[in-house]
Design brief:
Length: 158
């Protein structure tokens, strides 16, 4: 059983969940955009068969590189290319296509910022995912009008 939400989020029952929570699901982003509508999901980095989220990053010493994030909500895996990300430092995250810095969604509880990755090409803050710009901070937030996504995100895999 697989379901695609209209916003391109794939919601599947979590086969690896050991806790018998009846509504445990895995939420996978299949389409994410910068504020100018460029697709951030790329098959250049694949996680468990799912194309990853590719973002341009600049560390605190202004070294540029690319970061690939797992599209699975709650999955902490990350690949950095041409860049050694230092845990605890903040990175400037931007669109690899147009170079625009991803806009701030809201403050993260770690003190850094959650930056927005949009679920629609129109850059609507009502439909976005916020990810923290601090290296190894795993906080993320989903803002969406979709019941399906909101429900799945409330039960990230453990
Ligand atoms: Zn862009
Ligand atoms: Zn954070």
């Amino acid at each position: 059983m697989e379901r695609f939400d209209k916003l391109g989020m794939l919601v599947i029952p979590n086969p690896r969940s050991r806790t018998p929570r009846p509504r445990a699901t895995t939420l996978i982003a299949t389409r994410l955009y910068c504020q100018h509508g460029h697709d951030l999901v790329s098959s250049r980095a694949v996680f468990d068969g799912h194309p990853g989220i590719l973002i341009a990053a600049r560390d605190q010493r202004d070294h540029p590189g690319l970061v690939a994030l797992s599209p699975v909500f709650g999955d902490k895996r990350r690949i950095s290319l041409d860049l050694d990300l230092v845990p605890g430092e903040r990175a400037t995250l931007s669109c690899p296509s147009c170079g625009a810095a991803l806009p701030v969604h809201s403050p993260c509880e770690c003190g850094a910022d959650l930056v927005a990755l949009f679920l629609t090409a129109s850059g609507d803050f009502a439909e976005c995912i916020g990810i923290c710009d601090r290296v190894d901070c795993v906080h993320a937030r989903i803002t969406t009008s979709s019941e399906l996504i909101a429900r799945a995100a409330a039960f990230p895999r453990s």
